[in-house]
Design a protein that fits this description.
- The chain has eleven helices and no strands.
- The protein is mainly α.
- The chain starts with a helix and ends in a 7-residue tail after the last helix.
- InterPro entries: Haem_Oase-like_multi-hlx, Thiaminase-2/PQQC, Thiamine_Salvage_TenA.
């Protein structure tokens, strides 16, 4: 029987391929992504990462395994501290400040994704929470690595590309995959089914998040 991660990735391969080829990522790789699209993305991502960090912290609280506590709590810290540094660098480059970012509301896609993660974190058992969190790690690594091999050194989004194609991030993703697989190995059939549903939903929301940035999505009313 394949590990949960291999099975989940195989089931959602078409969704990953669609994410990889979508206009936002294709244009980012070529360095021709419109600045306003990236501004929209980075503002929404800053808001998303707060909720992502909160969901990881809840996962740490639900873990009975010391290694799991360290993994989830450490990932929560990285999401808030390390990636915030990347965002603040881009805020400075692209004429954004903390007040402007705070004043902008979450886009519908960001609101949907963060609400899903927080509801899952508080309501579901740890294996399902881990499965919901995993795509954000894994998809970013795969997209970052793919783009890194194609982007020119002068790409204006090089700092973003280098972060998600880096060895440190790759190691964090591997640790998250291993932890999720271990949780899945001990899960009940019902929990395993819920894990697959949560993984797929998060994969869908990853696609929606980038698509919404490319369209500079706003609330319709």
């Amino acid at each position: 029987m394949p590990a949960f991660s291999a099975d989940a990735w195989s089931r959602n391969l078409a969704l990953y391929d669609a994410t990889l080829s979508m206009p936002f990522n294709a244009e980012l790789a070529e360095g021709r992504l419109p600045l306003e699209a990236f501004r929209h993305y980075i503002v929404q991502d800053a808001k998303y990462l707060i909720a992502f960090g909160q969901a990881l912290a809840v996962a740490a609280a639900k873990s009975d395994d010391p290694d799991g506590i360290v993994l989830f709590a450490g990932a929560a810290r990285e999401a808030v501290v390390v990636e915030r540094g990347l965002h603040e660098d881009y805020f400075g480059r692209f004429g954004l400040d903390a007040a402007t970012v705070a004043a902008r509301p979450m886009s519908p896609a960001c609101h949907h994704y963060t609400s899903f993660l927080l509801a899952t974190a508080f309501r579901e058992p740890l294996p399902v929470v881990a499965a919901a969190l995993l795509p954000c790690f894994w998809v970013y690594r795969e997209v970052g690595t793919f783009i890194h091999g194609r982007a020119a050194p002068a790409n204006p989004y090089r700092a973003w590309i280098d972060t998600y194609a880096g060895d440190d991030f790759a190691a964090a993703v591997d640790a998250m995959i291993a932890t999720t697989d271990a949780l899945a190995a001990a899960a009940s059939p019902a929990e395993l089914q819920a894990m697959h549903a949560a993984f797929t939903r998060a994969m869908q929301l990853e696609w929606m998040f980038w698509d919404s940035a490319h369209r500079r999505e706003r609330w319709p009313a």
